[in-house]
Amino acid sequence: MTLLLLLLFLCEAQSWVASKPNFVLLMADDLGIGDPGCYGNKTLRTPNIDRLARGGAKLTQHLAASPLCTPSRAAFMTGRYPVRSGVASQSQVGVFLFSASSGGLPPSEITFAKLLKDQGYSTALIGKWHLGISCHDRGDFCHHPTSHGFDYFHGLPLTNLRDCKPGEGSVFTRAFRLLVFVPLQLIAVALLTLAMLKWLRLCQAPPCVFLFLFLLAALLLGLLLGFLHYFRPLNCFLMRNRDVTQQPMSYDNLTQRLTADAARFLRRNAETPFLLVLSYLHVHTAHFSSKDFAGKSQHGSYGDAAEEMDWSVGQILDVLDELKLANNTLVYFSSDQGAHVEEVTVKGEVQGGSNGIYKGGKANNWEGGIRVPGIFRWPGVIRAGLEIDEPTSNMDIFPTVAKLAGSPLPQDRVIDGRDLMPLLQGRAQRSEHEFLFHYCNFYLNAVRWHPPNSTSIWKAFFFTPKFSPEGANGCFPTHLCFCHRQYVTYHDPPLLFEISRDPRERNPLTPTSEPRFQEILEAMQEAAARHTRTLQDVPNQLSLGNLIWKPWLQLCCSSWGLSCQCDREDQDGRQSL
Question: Sorted alphabetically, which keywords does the UniProt record give (predicted)?
Answer without folding.
Answer: Calcium, Hydrolase, Membrane, Metal-binding, Signal, Transmembrane, Transmembrane helix
